[in-house]
Each structure stands twice: as C-alpha cells, then as structure tokens.
Amino acid sequence: MSLDARERLIVALDLPSVQAAEAMVTRLGDTVCFYKIGYQLAFAGGLPFAAGLIAAGKQVFLDLKLHDIGNTVAKGVESVAQLGATFLTVHAYPQTMKAAVEGRRGSKLRILAVTVLTSYDDADLAAAGYDMSVGELAAARAAQARDTGVDGLVCSAEEVANLRTIAGPGMTLVTPGIRPAGSATGDQKRIMTPAHAIEAGADYLVIGRPIVEARDPKAAADAIVAEIEQATRK
Ligand code: C5P
Predict the structure, then answer these.
(1) Ligand 1 atom closest to Cα of 117?
(2) pLDDT tens sequence across 157-172
C-alpha cells in the first residue's frame, strides 16, 4: 500500500466535547490528517464535527461498531457514507458485514470489521454462548469478512501477522494498542511500538492517549510519524 507515513497515523479523539476535540485538532495542525471518533465524542456532537473535519480536508474514521438487522445496518451505513467518512467499524457478523458492504456501495467509505472485542477472553465467549476460543472465532470471522468483501479489519498488533495470512494483501489492517517506547501503557495490555506494528504489517495505527494526553501533542505526533517513516523504509 503506497501511503505516506503521515497518512498511516489515525489519532483517536477520545475527548468529552467538540470544544476539546477542536482544540486538539488545532494543536495537531498539519501533522495529523486522520482522526477517529468513537462513542464518547459521536454522542456529544461529534457527527456534525466530523462533517466539519472532512470539509477541512481531514479523513475521519467513525468507530461506531454497528450491529443490527441487515436493513438497518445498510441504511445507517448509507448515511455515514454521505457524511464522507473514510472508515466505519461494524461487528463481524455475516449479516451485518454483508449489509454494510451493500450500504457503502458507490461511496469512498471503507468498512472495517471488528472480529472479537479485545476485552473478551475464552471464558467471556463461553458465557456468551460460543463453543470456540477467541483465536478460532477471530480467524473464522476474518475469513468471513474477506469473503463478504469487507475492506479491512481492526486488530491488535500481535494479531496482524497471522490475520494477514487470512486477509491477504488486499485488506486494510488497522491497529490500536500502540505505545511509543517509554510512554504509559494505560489500560492497554497487548501493546507494540509504532515501528514494530508497521514492521508486522499494519497499514494504519490508531493512537490516542500517547498523543492527546502528551504535554506537547504535536511533538508526540511528529515523533510517531518519524518512527513510522523509518519503519516503512526498512
Ligand atoms: O488511548 P489509546 O491509544 O489506548 O486509544 C486507542 C483507541 O483504539 C481507543 O479509541 C480505543 O477505544 C480503540 N480500540 C482499542 N482496542 C481495540 C479496538 C479499539 O484500543 N481492540
């Protein structure tokens, strides 16, 4: 994939208000061209804000993890496509993925599937009625995503190499849980540095707190872009 280093960094705007998000986007300036908006900001005025970011030339990843009956998913995805977003997440259920792929037809929106939430372990899956391990279910869902025409997967950096063998070269792999060497891990358990994640085969890195909670967010983002750049040259 021929993306430059800057395009591969997606900053998670996990902030409580549009005002806080606007201030962060202003501070980051030209260093960052791609932002992720999740539940917290989306339900606090984040959707009109996303439209403004897109109008200003930024790319937006809406992390809304949709899952509903097919008709509802397809119509919701059509609305997200009209907003001009670049990525949208859905849960990797076959009906949901099929409807999402239909809903994004004719637009530039790309659908990313979440295989198994990273907060789930085998015991959580058993409690939810699944007779499979997390690894087995994630692999099965990745194959279904590929066969349904889903554009990419969200996965931890540890999973990238294995999922790439299932997803093939054409699917986009987007990886959270990234921590530059020396930064606080927060609640992330399975972490990797930006360079290692790129070397493992990730296309895009989603990074929140190491940038938005840094004393100098722009300097933190610049350093990460430089690290991505160096890793892609190897
Ligand atoms: O602050 P931090 O860099 O940990 O933010 C990572 C972002 O990626 C958050 O928005 C989080 O919700 C998201 N995410 C994640 N792990 C997943 C899926 C999404 O950390 N498996």
Answers:
(1) 21
(2) 889 999 999 999 999 9
Mutate to test the pocket of ligand 1, among 9, 11, 14, 91 (most ligand atoms within 8 A of CB): 14
- Ligand 1 atom 8 nearest Cα: 176
The upper half-sphere exposure of residue 15, i.e. CA atoms within 13 Å in the direction of its Cβ, equals 21
From the DSSP assignment, how many helices (H) and strands (E) are in the chain?
A: 11, 8
Does the Cβ of 38 fall within 6 Å of ligand 1?
A: yes
Average pLDDT over residues 45-65: 98
Q: Which of 65, 75, 218, 234 is catalytic?
A: 65
How far away, in angstroms, is 96 Cα from ligand 1 center? 22
Q: Each residue of 113-157: pLDDT tens digit?
A: 999 988 889 999 999 999 999 999 999 999 999 999 999 999 988
Domains of the chain: 5-232 (3.20.20.70)
Active site residue 75: no
Residue 136 structure tokens: 């087995």
CA-based nearest residue to 194, from 184, 206, 180 = 180
CA distance 176 to 192: 9
| Residue 213, both tokens | 């909670």
